[in-house]
Specification:
alpha+beta; 13 helices; eight-stranded antiparallel beta barrel; 29 strands
């Protein structure tokens, strides 16, 4: 009996270790600093507020977060809970926290647990007299060498994610960066450039800039524009496949879409997302623990939605596509204000689970051209499947998996009306029209319908089946051919992150030849199929245009030979 108890105990420990190894332990270091060591630069207004919001956001997403910030008087007066354990953003505190994170990562590694660490910096970016880029700390600097040698590399985590919102400030819409020449912009960009990250396959980075090196603050948000958009994305607005996690391609596409409509500013904002080369689909966050969440179902006719707390702090924004389903995880508050451009409603924390109540009309006031440009343009473009696909191709990122979009077990019951993110998933069934060289050379062309079924198997690969029937439209020397095939398919889609696909098939076919008053045929033809082409969306359908090559093993005059046929196929499928 004692031996059985020991064995059961060992088995339980092993099972617990395996279970713990499956979950990624996530930690974060948030560094926020308003001041600059350059006397000619004014202090930032909202970097400390951004640091607080970053800490609250990451804690809501289940990330153990340390905040290094020296809050100004207004931020300190708010007495936010995350400020209770905050420490000043000095070089010594940064080193101390990196050492603590390193020890925690090594301890988890001994237990077989995977660890991810996110490093967030919000503050001034500048260059020294030698032209070397650095980020400003309280009483020190963090240059390129120190960023990697003293912060990123010693963390000992399986993966490190770096998010930076760094520049300068002025006015209601202040620029985090000021006017910079091309050399300064290039040097700052180099601190986080792809070339630097390729030597570190477990490190990824996300940052934003404009053509002149600026990013922007906005008093209405009480935050940096990029930081606010990035947080909104991580809270769920960027989760385009609804798996509860946010990957680099999703966050980059969401930020890019959200900034796309901003016009009227001196320079255009853009985002750079570099996923770890060792794991391009490594999530930055997720899945989130239980907590306050706002579900925007596909049946709600709301497009642009903002969520604020009772003190007017903007927590998240999203621009929804038509019939789009969104699940926003919200930082802990007693109540929330949900606002659209024309309406609003207050929702107590306990009432979030009851769904969206009726919104009431609200008044809008714009103040100044720059603020109006942000108010009208920010979040003006939705992150739908079309925008996401185009962004992933342009940015060279690996797309997320849409095979099991929005699993009910993760996000609760699916809305009755469906939602666009899954409705944008193409049906596996396709119907097409094909034309190819006539079999056996008996005529110029054969044409007819085809039907296919394709289902994703692993990542970019899919399996399927295809049936086709063709005949020669007119007789050649009194002869007409008839060809029917059934084949299994193996293919690859989104080759090289483009709409290109490749596929091959093998199966059974039947071949017939008729002449006036006579018919003959072979019902046991070995047949093969190969295709290369592109996919495209249009007119509410997903289209597939392919160049095809077919080979039939036929018997003629007692001898076996391969009969080749080149052709084209156009097929289409609907969206579910």
């Amino acid at each position: 009996m004692n031996k059985l108890g020991v064995l059961l105990g060992v088995a339980a420990l092993l099972a617990a270790r395996d279970a713990s190894a499956d979950a990624v332990i996530r930690r974060a270091l948030v560094i926020a600093h308003n001041e600059s060591d350059d006397p000619s630069l004014p202090a930032l207004r909202f970097a400390d507020d951004d640091g607080v919001l970053w800490a609250e956001t990451l804690q809501r997403l289940g990330v153990e977060t340390t905040l290094l910030v020296d809050p100004d008087e207004a931020t300190r007066a708010e007495a936010r809970p995350v400020l209770a354990g905050a420490r000043p953003p000095t070089p010594d505190e940064v080193k101390r926290e990196v050492a603590r994170l390193r020890a925690a990562s090594l301890a988890d590694d001994e237990l077989g647990r995977e660890t991810d660490v996110m490093v967030v910096y919000v503050g001034h970016g500048n260059t020294d007299d030698m032209g070397r880029a650095y980020f400003t700390l309280a009483g020190g600097r963090l240059d390129k060498a120190a960023l990697y040698a003293d912060v990123v590399d010693p963390l000992a985590a399986d993966y490190v994610h770096v998010i930076v919102d760094a520049c300068r400030a002025s006015g209601v819409v202040g620029s985090r960066g000021g006017q910079m020449d091309a050399a300064v912009v290039a040097e700052l960009r180099g601190m986080l450039a792809r070339e630097q990250l390729t030597t570190r396959p477990t490190v990824g980075a996300v940052f934003a800039e404009s053509d002149d090196g600026e990013t922007h603050e906005w008093s209405r948000l009480r935050a940096g524009v990029f930081s606010h958009v990035a947080r909104s994305g991580l809270l769920g607005a960027a989760d385009i496949n609804g798996d509860g996690q946010v990957e680099y391609s999703e966050l980059g596409a969401f930020v890019s879409a959200s900034l796309r409509g901003v016009k009227g500013l001196p320079a255009r904002l853009s985002v750079h997302a570099f996923a770890p080369t060792g794991a391009p689909r490594r999530p930055l966050v997720g899945p989130a623990p239980e907590g306050p969440s706002l579900m925007l179902s596909s049946q709600q006719a709301l497009s642009r939605v903002s969520v604020e707390d009772a003190e007017g702090r903007r927590l998240a924004d999203v621009r929804r596509a038509e019939d789009q389903y969104v699940m926003l995880r919200l930082p802990e508050r007693d109540a929330y204000w949900v606002r659209t451009p024309t309406s609003e409603v207050r929702i107590p924390r306990a009432a979030l689970a009851e769904g969206m109540p009726q919104l009431e009309p609200r008044e809008l006031q714009e103040r100044g051209p720059a603020e109006e440009a942000l108010s009208r343009g920010l979040f003006a473009v939705p992150l739908d499947k079309d925008f996401y696909d185009q962004y992933v191709v342009t940015a060279g990122l690996v797309p997320v998996d849409f095979t099991h979009a929005f699993p009910p077990g993760t996000l609760g019951p699916a809305p009755a009306g469906g939602f666009s993110r899954t409705s944008q998933e193409a049906s596996p069934w396709e119907v097409g029209l094909q034309g190819h060289q006539a079999p056996l050379g008996l005529g110029p062309i054969a044409a007819g319908p085809s039907i296919s079924y394709r289902r994703e198997a692993l990542s970019a690969f899919y399996l399927g089946a295809r049936g086709s029937y063709t005949l020669t439209p007119w007789a050649s020397d009194g002869l007409r051919t008839y060809r029917a095939t059934v084949q299994g398919l193996l293919g690859a889609r989104d080759v090289f992150h483009t709409p290109l696909f490749l596929e091959a098939g093998l199966g059974w076919g039947a071949l017939g030849v008729s002449s006036p008053g006579k018919y003959m045929g072979d019902l046991t033809v070995l047949t093969s199929h190969a295709a290369v082409g592109v996919t495209r969306k249009g007119f509410g359908l997903k289209w597939r245009l392919a160049a095809t090559a077919a080979m039939d093993r036929v018997t003629l005059d007692g001898a076996n030979r391969w009969d080749g046929m080149l052709g084209m196929e156009l097929s289409a499928t609907t969206f579910r």
